[in-house]
Amino acid sequence: MMEKEEIYSKVLRAGRRTYFFDVRATKAGDYYLTITESKKFTNDDGSFHYKKHKIYLYKEDFSEFNSILQEMTDYVIAEKGDEVISDRHQKDFKREYDTPAANTATEAPSTTEDNTPAESRFTDIDFDDI
User: Fold this and answer.
1) Domain assignment present for 18
2) How many structural domains compose the chain?
3) Residue 87 maps to which CATH number?
C-alpha cells in the first residue's frame, strides 16, 4: 500500500532510535496519525540497516489512546522517577569494575602452575611458521 502524503510531521531523535509522527489523509480526506519507530543496526562489515515499526492511529481512538499513554507514562515516572536507570547502572557497573577490590588482577599478577608470569605463557610466532 502506497503511503499517503504527509500533512504535518515531527521527528524525535533518541539515540539509535528515531520516532516519526506523521499526520496523513485518508481517501475520504479525513486525517489519521502514523507513529514510526526506526532503529539503526550496524552490520559486521560496517554497513547499516534500519528496522521500522509503524502504528496507525485514527481519530476515533485519539482520546482513549492519549488517556492511556498519559496514565502509563505518569505511572512509570511515579514508580521509578525521571532518571534513566540503565544509564546510572552502566556508570555504577564501570565504577565497580574499575575499583581495585573488584579487579583482582591489580592486586597480584597471575601466574601459571610453575609460577611463571601469565604473560610469558604466550609463544611468539612468525607468520612464516604457519
Assistant:
1) yes
2) 1
3) 3.10.450.700
pTM of the model as a whole: 0.58
Handedness of CA 20, 90, 84, 65 (dihedral sign): positive
- The answer to whether the CB of 35 falls within 8 A of the CB of 57 is yes
Q: Which tens digit of pLDDT belongs to each residue from 10-22?
A: 999 998 899 999 9
State the cell numbers at 103: 579487579
Q: Which three cell numbers stand for residue 48?
A: 547499516
Burial 37-65 (b: 16+ CB within 10 A, else e): ebeeeeeeeeeeeeeeeeeeeeeeeeeee
Cβ neighbors of 20 (< 8 A, separation 6 or more) are 9, 10, 11, 34, 35, 36, 38
* Residues spanned by the domain of 43: 6-94
3-state secondary structure of 53: strand
Gap between the Cα atoms of 92 and 84, Å rounded: 13
Q: How confident is the model at residue 106 (pLDDT cuts 50, 70, 90)?
A: very low
